[in-house]
Design goal:
Mean pLDDT: 90
Helix content: 25-40%
Low-confidence stretches: 1-35
Number of helices: 5
Strand content: 5-15%
Strand order of the largest sheet: 1-3-2-4-5-6
Order of helices and strands: HEEHEHEHEEEEEEEH
Distance between the termini: 51 Å
Number of strands: 11
Largest sheet: 6 strands, mixed
Radius of gyration: 19 Å
Oligomer: single chain
Shape: globular
């Protein structure tokens, strides 16, 4: 537990390397000047755009497209992405178990890190990302498991409410992609079980990119990992670590997690070379870094050699969790397009 505690604390510090070192100098932060915050119980009102970090009806950082990718962008308003962001409530001195939905500083941190650098990978579709009373990072490593569960349950309550509001007011029968990272994936797994698995809405699922957390082989009964780059109605996930490193908590996982390699989109354990990596978006949003790293599935995790990018000599960690999406940004972006085409073709054939 001590080792895991240190890993999460160090991971929080790495945010500064991947996100804050190089936010694009030509990207301008937006300011929300409408809507209202939480109700008297602290619950977000999802009829108000201010309570969405990303939404098609407002300009937000998820709309940003890296300069090298702008010419090839293809907008598809017929498909929606529901994105669940990772933990940004990480300060050790913060005693809160759950975020204040009206914390403008925290919201700005969320918007200009994960929404800009991660959610934007999915922005060729209509993109929805709710703000939610996320659990503090300590919920994943504390010995106070009762408080941790309550914090994560409260966070999921908001996610569930936001998704139901989205279904009732915005979806209008469109196919859906679920996308998430880290804590977002903790909640995405619950969301998939409650709303999709063995339910009519499963037919509307293009795919779920549930990244950054273990997904044991027995996690789902009616949803399976994607077998190739065109499969639909299936799940995609991985956790990235430096090649040769096995995190200490891996041996404690009772059931081995499955992994889909983001360079081959299969579960084959053959190494995928850097040449297959079409480009990552790392420290500078408008800089695409081609062939940034390779990827090999190993014992329930994804191994990658140290990324090649400006300033990568600073990256001493063996845990590449922060870069799970960024390291494979363009491959993800193009695969979303591929699976949508496949879904539409299958739907038309039926």
């Amino acid at each position: 537990m001590v080792q895991r505690d240190r890993a999460f604390c160090y991971l929080a510090g790495l945010v500064s390397i991947f996100y804050f070192m190089g936010c694009s100098p030509v990207y301008s932060r937006y300011v929300t000047a409408y809507g209202s915050g939480p109700d008297t119980a602290g619950r977000p009102d999802y009829s108000q755009l201010v309570n969405w970090a990303a939404h098609p009806d407002k300009k937000d950082p998820s709309d940003s497209i890296p300069i090298p990718l702008r010419a090839g962008t293809l907008q598809d308003t017929a498909v929606d992405v529901f994105f669940l962001h990772p933990t940004t409530l990480v300060a050790a001195k913060d005693s809160l178990w759950n975020a204040d939905i009206n914390d403008s500083a925290l919201n700005a941190r969320t918007d200009n890190t994960t929404i800009l650098f991660q959610a934007s990978a999915f922005n060729e579709c209509r993109l929805f990302a709710p703000r939610y009373r996320q659990a503090h990072l300590r919920a994943y490593y504390t010995t106070d498991t009762v408080s941790a569960k309550k914090a994560l349950d409260l966070a999921y309550e908001d996610i569930r409410t936001a998704f139901q509001y989205y279904l009732d007011h915005y979806n209008q029968g469109r196919p859906i992609i679920i996308a998430s990272h880290s804590q977002g994936t903790t909640h995405a797994k619950r969301l998939l079980k409650e709303f999709f698995e063995n339910k009519p809405l499963q037919n509307k699922l293009v795919a779920a990119y549930i990244i950054g957390m273990a997904i044991p082989g027995n996690e789902f009964s009616g949803l399976a990992p994607c077998g190739d780059s065109t499969a639909t109605g299936c799940l995609i996930g991985w956790r990235t670590f430096k090649e040769g490193y096995e995190p200490p908590y891996l041996v404690k996982e009772k059931t081995r997690s499955w992994v889909v390699n983001p360079l081959t989109w299969t579960m084959a354990e053959d190494p995928a070379p850097r040449s297959l990596n079409k480009g990552g978006i790392l420290t500078r949003f408008n800089e695409l870094v081609p062939h940034v790293t390779d990827a090999t599935i190993h014992d329930g995790i994804l191994w990658a050699h140290r990324p090649h990018f400006r300033g990568s000599f600073l990256l001493q960690t063996k845990n590449y969790h922060i870069g799970d999406i960024n390291l494979f940004y363009l491959n993800i972006r193009e695969n979303v397009r591929t699976r949508i085409r496949s879904y539409k073709a299958q739907t038309a054939a039926n």
